[in-house]
From TrEMBL:
The keyword Ribosomal protein does not apply. This is 2-nitropropane dioxygenase. Coiled coil: none annotated. The lineage of its organism: Bacteria, Pseudomonadati, Pseudomonadota, Betaproteobacteria, Burkholderiales. Gene3D superfamilies: Aldolase class I.
Length: 329
């Protein structure tokens, strides 16, 4: 049930999605200051002491900004936690959730159960990333407040279902928050997702080439130059199907046809990133091709707002002829 909401001050129904090695303090704070939800994966902050520092920085920065600008919409911040059994650092992450109390916690690659009691105890909400109906039903049964439907076209660990069919199916048994993720990079996509029945959208790739993201300049430039044809989905890198930039694989000397087996799924954030195969391989979603500049988050959100309002107006005009005469009047 949608009994609690941290979304009242949102400018747009958009999450700057949590992205591995991309989302950090600056991106989260800039997104929230711009009036959308700012998210980051806790796995980006290693060791645990760095996660403690990041959460303190985000909390303090937003508290000060709200005090200085009480009339501006400020989005809530969100921590993304991997609950897969391989993540031995999960207890430490949970302790920091309890300490800093992010309004929203998103769980990934595992059940939301480990975080629900803690987050609900301080009034936060829990959203579970899901890629199919089986996982969605399990997350709903576990008590998740929302489901992030990672659909076909999403970057990073991706899904395979049509977002329209996925949302329609989930609405048959779930009445909590629904987020669509998958290839959305503009305000028209936001409007279309709401029309399809979602409450919010995940938008990741659009925020990679921003000034505030942790992505390298070369990664940002590759996003700007690439198109949807430059993507390949494979489980050969992390053990889970993910959407990768082909030029990134090539510059790392990787040929997916020669990688016969997928590695074991290991998402232990207590390990150092430097030793992992995927550290220098870059992911992206199918929204490529509509991103042309590296720019501040605030400029991206300004444009999204304009596009969203324009799309809503166009939708009203396009549907007017199909409405009953009494409604048209």
């Amino acid at each position: 049930m949608k009994t609690f909401t941290p979304f009242e001050s949102l400018r747009l129904p958009v999450f700057a999605a949590p992205m591995f090695l991309v989302s950090g303090v600056d991106l989260v704070v800039a997104a929230c200051k711009s009036g959308i939800v700012g998210c980051f994966p806790t796995t980006n902050a290693r060791p645990l002491e760095q996660l403690d520092s990041w959460m303190a920085q985000i909390s303090n920065a937003l508290r000060e900004f709200k005090h200085e600008h009480p009339d501006l919409p400020v989005g809530p911040w969100c921590a993304n936690v991997i609950t897969h059994s391989s993540n031995t650092r999960l207890p430490g992450d949970l302790a920091l959730l309890e300490k800093y109390q992010p309004p929203i916690v998103v769980t990934a690659l595992g059940s939301p159960k480990p975080v629900i009691e803690i987050v609900h105890s301080y009034g936060g909400i829990v959203i579970a990333d899901v890629i199919n109906l089986k996982l969605a039903m399990k997350a709903a049964d576990a008590g998740a407040d929302g489901l992030a439907c990672i659909s076909s076209g999403a970057g990073g660990h991706t899904g395979f279902l049509s977002p329209f069919a996925f949302v329609s199916a989930i609405k048959q048994f779930f009445n909590g928050y629904i987020i669509i993720g998958g290839g959305i990079t503009n305000g028209q996509g936001v409007a279309g997702s709401l029309a399809a029945g979602a409450d919010f959208v995940y938008m990741g790739t659009r925020f990679i080439p921003t000034v505030e993201s942790m992505a390298s300049d070369a990664y940002k430039e590759m996003i700007v130059r690439s198109t949807i044809d430059d993507l390949v989905v494979s489980d050969r890198i992390t053990g889970t199907p993910a959407s990768w930039l082909k030029p990134s694989l090539e510059q790392n000397g990787l040929d997916l046809t020669t990688l016969d087996t997928a590695p074991s799924r290991n998402y232990d954030s207590s390990q150092q990133i430097d030793t992992r195969r995927w550290k220098s391989i870059w992911a992206a979603g199918q929204g490529l091709g509509s991103i042309h500049h590296i720019e501040p988050v605030s400029d991206v959100v300004d444009r999204l707002e304009q596009e969203f309002h324009q799309a809503c107006d166009e939708m009203i005009n396009k549907t007017a002829m199909f409405l009953p005469p009494c409604v048209q009047a």
